Each structure stands twice: as structure tokens, then as C-alpha cells.
TrEMBL record:
PROSITE patterns: ABC_TRANSPORTER_2. This is Peptide/nickel transport system ATP-binding protein. One of its GO terms (molecular function) is ATP binding. It is found in: Cell inner membrane. Pfam families: ABC_tran. It comes from Rhizobium aethiopicum.
Length: 281
């Protein structure tokens, strides 16, 4: 029998996405695997990070034409699934954490009801057991007063708490893979690290794979074993640490972000004229 830990959770081969036939591809022949590990996708705005994440979740608009030689979750081909089958998988086997919890949580349902609904859908729990699972999960994401928070509505909680609630809801069913798309960029700087640490802790505890999508290559390097660098819809290099960066685009991404250990007065700006992006074409 194949070791569960050795088989990739996600296997992507030659994934391409176009928004309309004949359009320039937003994602071009992208291939990578994610095991029970943390893998980051970085790149500037428009490089195709989110489109890659959404293609995996099968959450792209109908105009998107998605092709892949392989897009498998735990060996199961996702492109062969019906919308109904995908619906059953999302939140259970594959979870998406988006940028702003205020838009991903249902505004008309209390926090407790939303998590209990996730427990019903993915764990088959109802009534008190569903409520208990919701409370336990809120405690797990270190919400100190879960009873009070369960009665609140999304607009009544802070961004940081909202993202903890999202993490609680998304990780309740211990999904095989978590796709987190800029999970902290809408949050106050003071809580970003805590939320990421929490996500990291839960992903490790569940032995899930994590695909962390972000423009912040330093943050990704701090949390991920591997960093996939995208430019213009393609993967231009994959790193295990920032020191390995060879491509001028990747170096540009690193230089364009502040380094807390090495503060400078003026940050570098990505200079496209100097980039040899032939490799990316
Ligand atoms: N719904 C859509 N319709 C048409 N084009 C789209 C759509 N979504 C994304 N694109 C295009 O696909 C390309 C990749 O966008 P994508 O959002 O994946 O990039 P990104 O790297 O995630 O950027 P950001 O960090 O700004 O989200 C861009 O050229 C974008 O304009």
C-alpha cells in the first residue's frame, strides 16, 4: 500500500486557464505537486496566482477555459467532477480561505450557526453535537469567549477574529488541502502573524497540505517549505529558500519588500526593462 504521506495531496500537470477562447492565457502550462507540506505561490499582481488557486477549487467563472493533463486531489481527478460533486468536496476535502473574512462569511447568519452548518454538511452532525463541535473549534482557534462569539454576526467581529472563524470553519472537517489566497492581506498588521501561525499550526496538526498564495515572498518563505514563483501565468522558478533565488524577477520581488532584519530607506522597484524574462515566455 502506498504511504499516505508520500502520495501528493494535489498533483497539477500542464494546467492552463484562458478567459475566453483565443484570449492570452492567464495561467500557462503550470505543473507542481503539494504533499502534506506547505507550498507557497508568489508573484506580482496579475501573475496568475489566484487563477491557479481557483482553478484547483473549480471556482472560476464560466468564461474560464481550464485544461490540464492532470489536476488530482488525492489521486482523484477534479476536472472530471460534476459541479454537485465539487460542492460536496469543497469544505470537506479541499478548503479555501480568502482574503477578507467579511466577504466570505454569510452576513445574515450568526457565527455559531455558520460553523454548526459546516459541521452538519461535512461531519453529518446536527443539534447539540454540531453546536459542541462549533464551540470546540472556536476554542481551538483560541477564541477565548466562544459562547459570546457564536451569537455574533460577521459585521460585529474584527477582521482578525473573522479570519480565525474562517479557519475554524474551513478546518473543521480536516481537509486534505487548504488553499489560502492572501489570507492576511486584509488584516491589521498586528494580527497577521498570529493568524498565519494559527493556520500553520492547524494544517500541521491535521496533516493537510497548504497552498499559500501571496504577493509577499518573505512571508511565504517564513511559512513554506517550497516557494513557486509565477510571472505572466508561468512558473519561472521554485525555491526552498530566498537565498536560492536566481531569476532577476524573483530577486526583484524580494528587493521590493521590506526586510525587517535589514531596514532600508528606499525600497527597490521592479524594473521590467532589466528583466530577462525570456525564460518565462
Ligand atoms: N474573471 C476574469 N475574467 C477575465 N480575466 C481574468 C479574470 N480573473 C483573472 N483574470 C486575468 O487573469 C490574469 C491573472 O490574474 P490573477 O488574479 O490570477 O493574478 P494574481 O497573481 O492572483 O493577481 P492579484 O494578486 O492581483 O490577485 C490577469 O491578467 C487577470 O486580468
Amino acid at each position: 500500500m502506498q504511504d499516505r504521506d508520500l502520495q501528493p495531496v494535489l498533483s497539477v500537470k500542464e494546467l492552463s486557464v484562458r478567459f475566453g477562447r483565443g484570449a492570452v492565457p492567464a495561467v500557462s502550462n503550470v505543473s507542481f505537486d503539494v504533499g502534506r507540506e506547505r507550498v507557497g505561490i508568489v508573484g506580482e499582481s496579475g501573475s496568475g496566482k489566484s487563477t491557479t488557486g481557483r482553478a484547483i477549487m473549480r471556482l472560476l467563472p464560466p468564461a474560464a477555459v481550464v485544461t490540464a493533463e492532470r489536476l488530482d486531489l488525492g489521486g482523484d481527478p477534479l476536472l472530471a467532477k460534476s459541479e454537485r460533486q465539487m460542492g460536496a468536496l469543497r469544505g470537506k476535502d479541499i478548503a479555501l480561505i480568502m482574503q477578507d473574512p467579511r466577504y466570505s462569511l454569510n452576513p445574515v447568519l450568526s457565527i455559531g450557526k455558520q460553523i454548526a452548518e459546516a459541521a452538519r454538511l461535512h461531519l453529518g452532525l446536527r443539534g447539540k453535537p454540531a453546536q459542541d463541535a462549533a464551540r470546540a473549534m472556536l476554542e481551538r482557534v483560541r477564541i477565548t469567549d466562544p459562547e459570546r462569539v457564536m451569537a455574533l454576526y460577521p459585521h460585529q467581529i474584527s477582521g482578525g477574529m473573522g479570519q480565525r472563524v474562517m479557519i475554524a470553519m474551513m478546518l473543521l472537517a480536516r481537509p486534505k488541502l487548504v488553499v489560502a489566497d492572501e489570507p492576511t492581506s486584509a488584516l491589521d498588521v498586528s494580527v497577521r502573524k498570529d493568524v498565519l501561525l494559527l493556520l500553520d499550526e492547524l494544517v500541521r496538526e491535521n496533516n493537510s497540505g497548504l497552498l499559500l498564495i501571496s504577493h509577499d515572498i518573505r512571508m511565504v518563505a517564513a511559512f513554506c517549505e517550497r516557494i513557486i514563483v509565477m510571472y505572466a501565468g508561468r512558473i519561472i522558478e521554485t525555491l526552498t529558500s530566498l537565498e536560492e533565488a536566481r531569476h532577476p524577477y524573483t530577486r526583484g520581488l524580494i528587493a521590493a519588500l521590506p526586510d525587517p532584519k535589514n531596514p532600508v530607506r528606499r525600497l527597490a522597484v521592479l524594473d521590467r526593462a532589466k528583466l530577462d524574462l525570456e525564460a518565462a515566455q
